[in-house]
Each structure stands twice: as structure tokens, then as C-alpha cells.
Amino acid sequence: MVTSNVFEIETTTITDKEGGIMLEFHLRDFLILFANFVILFLVLRWLLFKPLAQVFKEREAATTGALQDAKDLTAKKEALSLP
What we know:
- By secondary structure, the chain is an alpha+beta fold.
- The chain has one domain.
- 65% of the residues lie in helices and 22% in strands.
């Protein structure tokens, strides 16, 4: 493994037995990709995840309410039916 500073940016190179480059790691590129990922995650969370979570909560509340109404109607029907 060879570490060198090119334009004051750390680069790590992994070579095979013949000296050919197998993998090169550029810290600057990694930091740019990481920043892009964080920005994309935050934008998607704001535009997509939070609104979808709100829709799911509303649907759950509506479903829970409907199930409770159905249980109440079933109990009423059983109370009114003749033995």
C-alpha cells in the first residue's frame, strides 16, 4: 500500500504483485460523495419520508377508528339479538 499527497489531497493506492493498480482511494472524492449522500438524504427526508410517515399515521388512525366502530356495532348486534 502506497500513500502519497497529490495536490495536498491524500491518495491511497493498493497494487498487485506485478505493480498494477488495483484500487485507488481519493479522500477528496470520498468526501464529495459523502456530502452528496447526506444532502440527498436530507432532501428526501424532507420531501418524501416525513409526508409519507404522516400519511401512514393518518391511515392507521382511520383504520383503528373503523375497527373500533365495527367492534361496537358487533357488540350492539349481539346485545339486541334474541337468545
